[in-house]
What does this fold into?
Amino acid sequence: MQVRRCAHVMIEPRERLDFDLALLATGGTGLRSVIEWIALAPHRDTEVVLSLDEVAVLGVVSPEQWLSLDELAQSHPREVLDALLEKQLLIADATGDTGARAADKALRDAHWRGLDAIAHRYSRWRGVDTVEAQRRFGEETDQTFLQRLGDAPVQVREWVDPAQRQALSAAGSSALDALLARRVTCRNYELTQNLSFADFSTAMYRAFGARAVDEYAPGIFLLKKGAPSAGGLHPVEAYVLVQRVDSIAPGLYHYHPAAHALEPIREMPADELTALAKVCLGGQPYFAQAHVVIALTGRFVRNFWKYRNHAKAYRAVILDAGHLSQILYLAATELGLGAFVTAGVNEVQIEQAFGLEPMAEGPLAMCGFGIRGVERNEVEFDPNHAVWPADKPNPV
Ligand SMILES: Cc1cc2nc3c(=O)[nH]c(=O)nc-3n(C[C@H](O)[C@H](O)[C@H](O)COP(=O)(O)O)c2cc1C
It folds into this structure.
């Protein structure tokens, strides 16, 4: 069997506290500090603890050259090599663990920079319920969340005395000002009325549609959208959970930005779809009720094809997603609709729902839009009463 090291691995000495009954019996707290070597290898879903012998072997096996396992065993303990194969940090050739090899290959093919790959892989959530976590926090402590945090840093950084500032002219009041003033993250959606097909289509086109597809160089096509994108590559995709839109069956779709069309993935009963939306949205029920919920994914392979192992590439893909979500807010607001964006998402469940290989194409955020509800049951930040009149304050 031939083996090589996985493409990327970083090793962190991490401290944890262990409970030891013997220490308690001798009059101590029962707590003991343990420092372990943790391998962070972004082709794996989970971190793994290493022995010092395993760390040493990882430090001498090439991630590029295939070597004979039997030859390696002449200079390194066989049980250490076997343990590293079991932990998927050594990758075997065609005769070994096919899952580990495929996951490692996906990372290599995408040209990830190691640090970014680790940040992406290990910041993904699976089955996190943020609302439940908040409720548990409330039960576990008598402090409010804000008390626990202490004083907030000042809201605006000031470098000089007010007298030294150079005042700027007023912006006037254009249609853009009026639109921006009405942009309020919507957490209250109308549940009984469908969004019209026309409004759905218009918002999708303005936020995500391509206004041109240009052959920039032979075989290299760039998209022109309303939002900027690093290198004009537009690697961010929109996967849509259509819940209540006229003439569209509830289900999962992919939006094709050049054809301005939905690609059906799976139809789903409405209640199942809302349950899936809620799980994907980290348990946030108010967003799960939007007529349209969208997972924004970064197709890393497309951006990293150009920006290989590049220090800014991952950041650029995330920025692209932010630009698209802001246009969605504006497009929805102009149509008199509400919109939201959230980073509190369960990436793993989104990947599973849409069948995505996480390191080739992974969720970055979710957004959505729909008809605003008439009741304000959930909190919205509308201090200027642009959406909600003063006599409809936030619920307490
Ligand atoms: C990156 C990002 C992540 C956000 N995540 C959440 C979230 O998890 N839950 C939520 O209710 N709102 C979320 N929001 C919305 C913000 O709470 C909202 O923008 C903020 O309260 C200000 O309100 P406004 O958008 O109406 O001005 C997020 C916004 C951004 C830009």
